[in-house]
Write a structure and sequence with these properties.
The structure holds 2 protein chains of 2 kinds.
Chain A (H helix, E strand, L loop, with lengths): L10 E6 L5 H17 L3 E4 L6 E5 L4 E4 L6 E6 L6 H11 L15 E3 L48 E3 L16 H10 L8 E5 L10 E2 L8 E3 L22 E5 L8 E5 L10 E9 L6 E10 L2 E12 L8 E7 L5 E8 L8 E10 L6 E5 L2 H5 L5 E3 L3 E2 L5 E7 L5 E8 L15 E7 L12 E6 L16 H4 L1 E4 L5 E4 L2 E9 H4 L10 E9 L16 H9 L8 E5 L2 E5 L6 E4 L5 E4 H52 L1
Helix pairs in contact in A: 1-2
Chain B lengths: L5 E3 L8 H7 L9 E2 L2 H6 L1
The chains are: A alpha+beta, B alpha+beta.
Chain lengths: ~650, ~45
């Protein structure tokens, strides 16, 4: 939307209102992390700023377009707790219309008016380019702001037909920002960097992203397009592109046992103090070869940096690219160090790394690596179960993928019986499971991963009166692991419409026949507004208490200053409210009237004073002259 | 009937933002936009 008045500052104050569902609160915070990774937009708890976004649970999912004055509502209602929906509504708040309302949309899509529900035609407006600016970015069928082909349809036929038919089932994606969404947002807000992105490297350029070979080792990493013993291509392009596709290789067949090859990243400057390193690793040497990950952290006391071993990656399976995550916690400028180490076993190949990404985000807690995925999609039984995992709180769980539906792939979260059950709280309270189908684009900023989250509500019951999230040994069904071990699996909780098969086969969700599901299960009970441990960062609760005693009128906003509730009164270009409760209205017109009338009053007063004083002076003068004459007369009378 | 194995938060249908709002009887501008006065006039 055109107009500077609609722009937010780069950091947007927000409030997650009590009305929001718990899962929605967690999803909203995850959506903020996507903005922090890919744009320069950040969010912070409201601390009394005049303009802020209040996220509420109203009916439906909606927002206004662009910044408004004061408290601006954005609704994440029932069923809106999907990360891309939240991203969509916040893009509205940041000033974005829907993509198909662009002034040039008729060049790219055809609206089939007789297929639109009657009375809903106004939802297909075009905005003139005096009101809406496309920022010189081409029309974007993949925008998260685009309607789907079925929007407002009165039957089963599409209301929007793309002029390039390949995009007919692309429009309406609700996975993540598209590249053009980010291009427009970063251009509109003059973004020069993002809060949480640090580096991404696919080794396509000879400068290998500024990484350096260490001098203190016995071999170097080599930038190669393939290795005879494997891999036969890089991970970024999987050998698809002639004369491109490079990765870094440490040949362990050519060195002695114990030899090392060290590759260090360029110096990086952290802002948040926690990072996630993600990369692909291929082993064609020996299972005894290993890769050690260090950080070299610099400080004033340590100009050469302190080398800290973070993780040893051992027993690396031979013959396939594997995704790895390493959580870091660095607060000073640092390098990431990859140390290849030749093991005792015979080797005819070595270690390869590719597609490194480093960001100041939390690593997923678990990764479900599904191999030979294309064969599984076509398999008749079409249900996959993940290996068992434990959450950070100790709950055992398993993920289920249902592939048998012709259109959609489903995903479900199951609690299962685990070793800690006797020590855990049941029913399982407020654990949020976030399941992300990874788009394996080499650059983390260009990924459109498909994510859904669910939260265990300890009060949820089933038809037979059991608590849904009670202990699996109480409410679960008997099940068996592939090795025959018996366990209990609770009912699944998720969605049958996680992603369509068509979208699953698009982008890089399936790469090298591998699919990755990133899993995080975290305790979000602190987000529960009524719980005692409300998030310490948001002082809104103290503001609320003090403000209860003060009612601000005329849309005034109560804020706390020096522990005292005050009303911050709204104002416009030529009007304002004043007073303790913003009860008095002022405007420049009134002021002008007051100034003019007081000037006139003063002028009249001055005039009267002047006239009176002239009159008195005259009278006094006349009196004196007449008395002088009289005196003179008297005086002279006798003189003659 | 055996308890259905999975609980589907979406009730088995893949609803977009606009479907959710339509089903709730909301007639928001372009399905999910709240306009202010000026934008209302423009639209």
């Amino acid at each position: 939307i055109i107009g500077e008045e609609y722009r937010w500052p780069h950091t947007i104050p927000y409030v997650l209102e009590d009305s929001l569902e718990m899962n929605a609160k967690g999803v909203i915070l995850n959506a903020f992390e996507r903005y922090r990774l890919k744009t320069c937009i950040d969010f912070k708890p409201w601390t009394g700023e005049p303009n802020y976004i209040s996220v509420i649970k109203d009916s439906g999912c909606w927002s206004s377009v662009g910044k408004r004055t004061g408290r601006q509502e954005l609704s994440i209602g029932a069923n809106c707790d999907r990360i891309a929906t939240v991203q969509h509504e916040f893009l509205h708040a940041l000033g974005f219309w829907h993509e198909q309302s662009r002034s040039d949309r008729d060049d790219y899509v055809a609206i089939i008016w007789d297929r639109i529900q009657s009375g809903r035609e106004h939802n297909f407006n075009i905005y003139s380019d005096e009101v809406s600016d496309n920022l010189n970015v081409p029309y974007d069928y993949t925008s998260v702001m685009h309607y789907s082909k079925t929007a407002f349809q009165n039957g089963t036929e599409p209301t929007i037909v793309t002029r390039i038919s390949d995009f007919e089932d692309v429009i309406g994606q609700r996975m993540d920002f598209s590249d053009s969404d980010l291009l427009k947002l970063n251009q509109l807000y003059n973004c020069s960097s993002s809060l949480s992105f640090l580096d991404s490297c696919n080794f396509e350029l000879e400068n290998v992203c500024g990484m350096i070979q260490s001098s203190g080792d016995s071999a170097d990493w080599q930038r190669v397009p393939q290795v005879p013993r494997g891999p036969d291509s890089d991970h970024s392009n999987m050998g698809q592109c002639q004369d491109s596709g490079f990765f870094m290789y440490f040949d362990t067949s050519a060195v002695n046992v114990g030899a090392t090859a060290v590759l260090e990243s360029r110096i990086l400057y952290p802002k948040r103090g926690f990072q996630c390193l993600q990369f692909y690793l291929y082993n064609s040497g020996s299972e005894s070869d290993q890769l050690n990950i260090y950080t070299r952290e610099y400080s004033t006391d340590n100009v050469n940096g302190i080398l800290t071993l973070v993780e040893e990656i051992k027993e690396i399976p031979i013959g396939s690219w594997q995704l790895h995550h390493v959580a870091l916690k660095v607060t000073n400028k640092f390098r990431v160090v990859f140390e290849g180490h030749k093991g005792s076993g015979a080797s005819l190949g070595g270690l390869s790394i590719d597609d490194i990404n480093l960001s100041e985000t939390w690593c997923p807690h678990h990764v479900w690596h599904i191999r030979n995925f294309t064969q599984l999609i076509d398999s008749p039984n079409g249900t996959l179960y993940s290996p068992p995992f434990y959450s950070s709180k100790g709950y055992a769980f398993q993920i289920q993928l249902t592939l048998s539906d012709l259109t959609n792939v489903g995903i479900y979260f199951h609690l299962i019986s685990g070793a800690n059950d006797d020590q855990l709280q049941w029913p399982c309270p407020w654990q949020q499971a976030t399941m992300t189908l990874l788009d394996q684009n080499p650059d983390i900023r260009q990924r459109m991963s498909n994510q859904r989250s669910i939260t265990t509500d300890p009060f949820m019951t089933t038809d037979n009166g059991n608590y849904f999230w009670d202990r699996p040994s109480q409410v679960g069904a008997v099940a068996f692991f592939p090795n025959g071990t018996q366990f209990r699996r609770s009912r699944g909780y998720g969605t049958s419409a996680f992603i369509t098969h068509q979208r699953l086969k698009s982008r890089d969700f399936i790469k090298g026949n591998d699919v990755y599901l990133l899993l995080t299960v975290e305790d979000i009970s602190h987000l529960n507004s009524t719980s005692v441990e409300s998030t310490p960062t948001s002082p809104t609760s103290s503001i609320k208490e003090l403000c209860l005693e003060l009612t601000c009128e005329n849309d005034g906003i109560c804020a706390v200053r020096d522990d005292k509730a005050e009303c911050m009164c709204p104002s416009g270009d030529d009007w304002w409210y004043v007073g303790e409760r913003c009860e008095k209205r002022g405007s420049t017109r009134d002021t002008i009237i007051i100034v003019v009338s007081s000037t006139v009053a003063v002028f009249v007063l001055m005039l009267v004073v002047t006239l009176v004083s002239v009159y008195c002076t005259r009278r006094k003068y006349l009196k004196r002259t007449s008395s002088n004459t009289a005196n003179m007369t008297v005086e002279n009378e006798h003189a003659f | 009937l055996p308890t259905p194995e999975n609980f589907d938060v979406d009730g088995g249908i893949d609803q977009d933002i606009f479907d959710i709002n339509e089903d709730l009887g909301l007639d928001l501008f372009e399905g999910d936009i709240k306009l202010n006065g000026a934008q209302e006039r423009n639209s």
